[in-house]
């Protein structure tokens, strides 16, 4: 037993000295074994890209199948693969591949799917390309710097083609496209009616903030003409109410002579002045909105608000400026649902009158 113990201890000492000798000489094993973590780091993007290429090949098989669809891969399965890969690429920060996965998803949706979901997929692809473009700009990279932007523009345009005309979704797509490509005109074939009206209202508010009230009045006139020409008054009832109040207040504030007023302006002033002077009854907005497509003042303005505006118009026409200043203040205090643009204009008008009256 003593001999066995001594031999085992010697073997242990020998192994310890061998290990210390190798470490002291600085020599390493000629075939080091890589850790599992390093293997995962090296293969992580590669595996995702291989999965993307595999899913893309399934789409090609599906396209080549022609009439023999039963031999082709399932479009739903390929679509699920693209969706899963897109989220994985986004989490990894590889936005250009995420965009291509969204495009693959949209291509699968084109085979008997929904055009709305196809448009949403193209919109996600455009946003991913835009993130890749912004990221390359922050890193000062020149490779593919313009390619990502062109990809975003292409996907935005495909999304507008698939989205329904006149909808809020298409207008949102076009607003994002205008941020990327400001040269897209509001009256181009890409612009929907909702987008044009939104741009006109934004331009009117910007003009008012600059103090260019004549341009603001012109933009509001264009909004009314645009809506009634398309026979879409019922869809924009709240907007038409807001625009009518702003148009009347701007006419009072600008104090234009009759020769400088358009027929629509004269009709608007006569309507509210008649309510105050001749004590005409304000017709409810519901009855006016149902009568054809012609422009009728007060069609979408509540009755109580019509009478308040009539007093303002009457005081302005009869040059009762002290009364006008008080009526403007009362109008803003009485109606709490006024828009910021209406309140700002009331504030400017009251301030200007307070300097002289």
Automatic annotation (TrEMBL):
InterPro entries on file: F8A
Annotated segments matching region Disordered: 1-38
Bias type Polar residues, positions: 1-10
GO CC list: early endosome
Any one GO biological process: protein stabilization
Compositional bias ranges of the Low complexity kind: 11-26
Protein name: Uncharacterized protein
């Amino acid at each position: 037993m003593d001999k066995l113990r001594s031999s085992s201890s010697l073997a242990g000492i020998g192994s310890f000295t061998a290990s210390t000798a190798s470490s002291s000489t600085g020599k390493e094993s000629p075939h080091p074994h890589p850790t599992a973590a390093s293997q995962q780091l090296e293969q992580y993007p590669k595996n995702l890209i291989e999965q993307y290429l595999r899913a893309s090949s399934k789409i090609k098989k599906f396209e080549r199948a022609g009439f023999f669809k039963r031999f082709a891969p399932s479009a739903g399965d390929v679509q699920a693969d693209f969706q899963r890969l897109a989220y994985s690429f986004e989490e990894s920060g590889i936005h250009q591949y995420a965009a291509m996965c969204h495009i693959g998803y949209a291509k699968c949706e084109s085979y008997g799917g929904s055009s709305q979901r196809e448009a949403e997929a193209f919109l996600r692809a455009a946003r991913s390309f835009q993130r890749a473009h912004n990221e390359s700009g922050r890193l000062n990279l020149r490779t593919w710097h313009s390619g990502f932007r062109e990809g975003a523009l292409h996907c935005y345009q495909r999304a507008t083609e698939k989205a329904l005309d006149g909808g809020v979704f298409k207008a949102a797509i076009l607003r994002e496209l205008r941020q990327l490509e400001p040269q897209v005109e509001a009256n181009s074939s890409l612009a929907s009616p909702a987008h044009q009206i939104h741009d006109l209202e934004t331009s009117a508010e910007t003009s008012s903030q600059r103090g260019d009230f004549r341009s603001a009045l012109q933009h509001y006139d264009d909004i009314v003409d645009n809506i009634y020409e398309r026979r879409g008054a019922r869809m924009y009832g709240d907007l038409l109410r807001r625009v009518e109040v702003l148009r009347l207040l701007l006419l009072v504030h600008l104090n234009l002579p009759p020769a400088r007023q358009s027929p629509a302006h004269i009709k608007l002033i006569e309507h509210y002045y008649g309510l105050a002077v001749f004590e005409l009854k304000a017709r409810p907005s519901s009855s006016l909105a149902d009568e054809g497509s012609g422009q009728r003042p007060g069609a979408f303005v509540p009755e109580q608000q019509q009478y308040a505006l009539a007093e303002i118009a009457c005081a302005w026409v009869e040059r009762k400026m002290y009364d006008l200043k008080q009526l403007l203040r009362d109008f803003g205090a009485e109606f709490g649902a006024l828009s910021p643009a209406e309140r700002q204009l009331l504030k400017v008008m009251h301030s200007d009158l307070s300097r002289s009256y």
